[in-house]
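Record type: monomer structure entry
Structure origin: computed from sequence
Chain ID: A
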Amino acid sequence: MRLIGSKTEQDIRKQPIKYNKSLFKSEEIIRLLEVIRSLYPELKVAYIIDWIPEQGEDIYKILINENIILEIELD
């Protein structure tokens, strides 16, 4: 795939940064951060790369420390 610097590419680049900031600063997602830190106490950086809101739970895929991908479900 060739990158051309389009608006879509720029938006895709901004999304993980936005999710990273919300993960560490949002009160709504504090429970998710607590679970991640309990599993990976050496956590330095985390990016939510996918989020699927379901009826009973939310499913997250998270990139941790640039080399671990975690999939987690929260009620």
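Annotation 1: The beta strands are 46-53, 58-64, 68-74.
Annotation 2: The chain has one domain: 7-74.
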